[in-house]
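ok trying this again, last paste got cut off
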Amino acid sequence: MRRVVAVVMAALVVGLSGCIGSGGSNAAEPRRGGILRVATVGLTTLDPAQADNPTEAATAEMLFSPLVNLDSRTHEVRPGLAARWHVNEAQTTFTFTLRRRLKFSNGSPITASDVKATFDRVAAKATQSPIAPLLESIAGYAAAHDTDGVSQLSGVVAKGPRALAVTVSKPFAGLASVFAYPGLGIIDSATIATIADKPVGSGPFHYAGRSGTTVSLRRDGNGAGSARLAGVNLVGYESLDAARAAFDAKKIDVVRLAREDPVPRGTSAQLHAGPYLAVGFYAINLANPKFADARFRQAIVQAVNAADLVAGAYPGGIVAKGIVPNGVPGGGIDQCRARCAYDPVSSKRLLGEAFPGGVVPNVAVDYDDSPTQKALAGKLISQLSAAGIPATARPHPGAEYASFLANDAPELFRFGIVSGFASEDAFLAPWFITGAPENIAHVASSDVDNALNLARKTEHPVRRQRAYATAATGVLATFAVVPVVQFSTRLIAPRTVREVVIDQFGGFDPRVVWKQHPSTE
């Protein structure tokens, strides 16, 4: 369900969450028709099992529909191909019932066996799917993913044409949210051989052909054929700069903005932005005796001016309010409050209490060596020094950074989490449960453990959110985490392209977009 991010993806684009454009108009009714031209960079396959970046995920959600969808406002799970589901009392077995008369783009029926085949294929060792960890909570995942010759998840069983049972190894009430990821969109198990180039999908558009660098998709009239657009042309470019130039030349309707790109100020383009499921922060290795005194850790946290770091290293980025980002239920609240506040006066007072002799230990700032992270570490070191905390930059080759973090040697280290599903669990449980392999900061708190275990057993969404909130504040109370930045997706489109609703996966809802003048554009 997770992956360590040594360098938050280079393709990731960030923007101001307050600049979200709806693309709509009170004076205009949605229209049907028109071809939307979308710029793509780095789209190498149409196979949803390989959808490991925002461009590929956005493409997957045009061609394939998942079991469930996420509400664009509340981020709660809603029906997708599954009309409904129920969970046993232990929160370990989820039974999904598919909608009636679902069809793939070739007209063949979508069945529970196709859903099972989709999940089995993603999990299988032979597939080498980068999104396979999304399914690791399912019973039988380790055998399917790590063993040659085992091709099926024992925890996924088709109970009939429309019923599918999914069993997890441990209670996990939020499991359904995992299945909203576009890369888990349902495939036709009979056409796997051609899925990378000529996929048969279950989404709102079907594959219609390829010409040069352009992949043509057209509205599908079968199971998920609710799109307003007549089609989408995915036009490939070698770089974001080239794609932006094509947009400026009016050859493209939708393009991503790179982190450093300015927001257009003219009247011909509108910014659409929304939270991406990724956060960046610094963490303190509590296994190092240097940080045994909580007052020292708190002094470090309160010496950091996150807003200044974001302004310098992530122009247009969002200052993180905690560990759990916006874009998941419960992620919009301020988890930090005064606990993470920049307060150099308090920092100096705490240092005096922790080290009455005035000798403050030197702190190594560990990071993956890149221009952005080098600049970020330099500014962080200056902030620590201003508070009276000596610090030294300790860069590591990017390819070796994940291994370095796992060897228990980091001190104050740069860290990031990118999740493929919209749940607080993805940002808390793997990284902060006592003794977890990915708990690199070595947080050990019975309050955090109890809250996370309670959340995983709680079916009621509001009570579950409260338990996760308790866990998040409990982690921050250890002063092992210094939240810095939340990332966002930024797209621009002409004002005549309406209702570009950004989702958490780096794309937009392809079903609701429409063009104001479909017959002339």
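PB: full thing came through this time. Confidence is low (pLDDT under 50) at residues 1-27.
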